[in-house]
Amino acid sequence: MSIRLIPTRYSTRSSFTSSLKTFTQSQVIIYRQFHDTPNTQNTATQQSFQNDPNHMIPTNVPKGVNLTTPTPASPLSVSAGLKHPGKKVAPNEFLKAFNNKELISFLMMGLCTLNSATLKLCIKLFPYVPMAVIKALVYRIYCGGETLDEVKQAGLRLHERGINNMMISLTIEACDGNDNVDPEYIIDETVKSINGILEPHTKKMIETCDKNINDIPSGYVALKPTGFVKNAANVLKNYNNGEEAAFAELVAKASRACEAVYEANQRLAKQYPDRTAPFVVAVIDAEKYELQPGVYELQRQLYKKFNKLNEPCYVVGTLQMYLSDSASLLAKEERLAQENNYRIGLKLVRGAYIHSEKDRATIIHKTKQDTDDNYNAGITYCIDSILNQKDKESTIGHLVVASHNADSLKLASTKVYTQENATNINKSNVVLGQLLGMADHITYDLIKNYQIGNVIKYVPWGPPLETKQYLLRRLEENGDTVRNDNGWPLVKATFNTLMGRLFNKTSA
Ligand SMILES: Cc1cc2nc3c(=O)[nH]c(=O)nc-3n(C[C@H](O)[C@H](O)[C@H](O)COP(=O)(O)OP(=O)(O)OC[C@H]3O[C@@H](n4cnc5c(N)ncnc54)[C@H](O)[C@@H]3O)c2cc1C
User: Which residue's CA is the nearest one to ligand 1's atom 52?
Assistant: First the structure.
């Protein structure tokens, strides 16, 4: 079996796809070992890799080293360049940060994901479950709240867990049509959330955290293109085919949010001139495949308007790496930016719509492994691009590694947090993001055990009814690859934590 992968470095930086090579399965394993090899070995291996005129995969990885399998010590445990305290990490330590109500919600999630039959049943029943029940049982672990004040509080609670910023998203789903969508309300609330949550929260984090100004992650506002115009699905599908006026309206709405972001950055930059990364960033979320052509066009127009050459990237677009055409799309975005003199910021995700895509067989990678390889190749390429620049001259200027996959997060951390990059100011332009309520043990491990500061959580907020589709996708996703950490182990862990609290209280 052969798998497409990109090497770490290229002879030219002009194209992502032209650098793709075909490697065998065993070469892929060596490539992984290259990334998982301890620092000294990495440097030697990397040098031999760079010296190789054909950019072949290095072969001098020590025999018998199998660092691809995490040891039980921690979800991310590898020695590769990451500073780990060496102590055994109690697997359920992360649960201590949650209150009893939240633990009960995790217990419910564990019960829903006990096995595929219970999960399928829960997914089927979910649309009929009354909102009051959803709100009482799961809303609180996946969503930041209903009001600006509640989201601010959610930010402070994240800070207590060592997570110093967030990606807030007013989640009103409309890709399947939604009569409740009022674009004016959505944009007004979004602007209020930038000025009322993101800017003050970022300022507070800068002033509260005992860290270098560049070690505080940026704050993000996620913009859902389907919320900015009535009948958005039709507008995005036909943005250049009869819906030009409505599409222009959509772009204007999104631009209002980006302007608020731009102005917040100007204000904060006056107070903290030493910061190199943006303070706050607007992120365009990716939607179902059939809507994406319009979303890509929206991203391009916003990049052009807000991401000027030699300035931080204030707008970040999303690429879904489960799409089989995503590698060439990344190359295309980079080329368009170079031709039109703007920079691009990227959030790379695997993609959340695999369960609902009609043409899954043709548009999505054939296997999970192909998606994983493509994702890891994508983040490798972007990180190299960002780290190797001197002063804001790279076309790709900012990256959010939006994933819960321990291997991908490990790969990104290993590349960014090296001794060599200790003083590289560009590293604050690479941020790792997870969804609120997902992969909390991995977020915990990154922060507490590897001391990686650039970690944020995606915090959806808004009326519970409107977040129902979002919650359904989380339920489906919980049954995918993260199942190892759900089901019975989660039930046991939350139950033990709750019992531990009860027991301590009783004995006190
Ligand atoms: C901060 C943040 C922002 C996000 N924003 C968006 C967004 O704008 N748009 C969006 O679509 N998603 C978004 N997501 C969701 C994201 O796409 C999912 O969380 C992600 O796909 C789950 O994958 P993972 O990287 O955590 O890794 P894993 O859990 O290892 O991978 C699971 C993913 O692999 C892929 N996959 C699974 N099986 C197969 C298969 N048989 N063949 C091919 N591929 C397969 C699917 O994408 C699946 O979701 C966001 C996530 C985060 C953390």
Answer: 402
Say if ligand 1 is within 6 A of residue 352 CB: yes
Rounded Cα–Cα distance for residues 12 and 15 (Å): 7
Where would I find the beta strands (DSSP E) of 176-261?
219-223
Q: Could you give the CA distance from residue 327 to residue 321 in angstroms, rounded to a whole number? A: 8
The pair of three-digit structure tokens given for residue 412, joined into one six-digit string: 């990104």
Nearest-angstrom CA–CA distance, 385 and 388: 6
Contact 393, 416 (CB under 8 A): no
Walk along the chain (508 residues) and give the pLDDT tens digit of each residue.
333 333 333 233 334 444 333 333 433 332 332 233 222 223 322 332 223 222 222 222 223 223 233 333 444 544 344 555 445 456 688 898 899 999 999 898 888 888 888 888 888 888 888 888 888 888 888 899 999 999 999 999 999 999 999 999 998 765 555 556 789 999 999 999 999 999 999 999 999 988 888 889 999 999 999 989 999 999 999 999 999 999 999 999 999 999 999 999 999 999 999 999 999 999 999 999 999 999 999 999 999 999 999 999 999 999 999 999 999 999 999 999 999 999 999 999 999 999 888 888 899 999 999 999 999 999 999 999 999 987 778 999 999 999 999 999 999 999 998 888 888 889 999 999 999 988 888 888 888 888 888 999 999 998 877 677 788 877 777 665 445 667 888 899 999 999 988 887 655 4
Atom of ligand 1 nearest to the CA of 167: 1
Distance CA 34, CA 58 (A): 8
CA of 289 to the centre of ligand 1 (A): 14
Mention every residue, 6+ apart, whose C-beta is less than 8 A from residue 405: 350, 372, 375, 481
In the chain, DSSP finds a helix count (H) and a strand count (E) of 19, 10
Residue with token string 């992360």: 94
Distance 172 CA to ligand 1 centre (A): 20
User: Hey, what long-range contacts does 245-248 have (CB within 8 A, 24 or more apart)?
Assistant: 247/294, 247/297, 247/298
- C-alpha 348 – ligand 1 centre gap (Å): 9
Nearest to 273 by CA among 343, 206, 190, 369: 206
Q: CA angle, 376 as apex, 371 and 380 as ends, to 5°?
A: 150
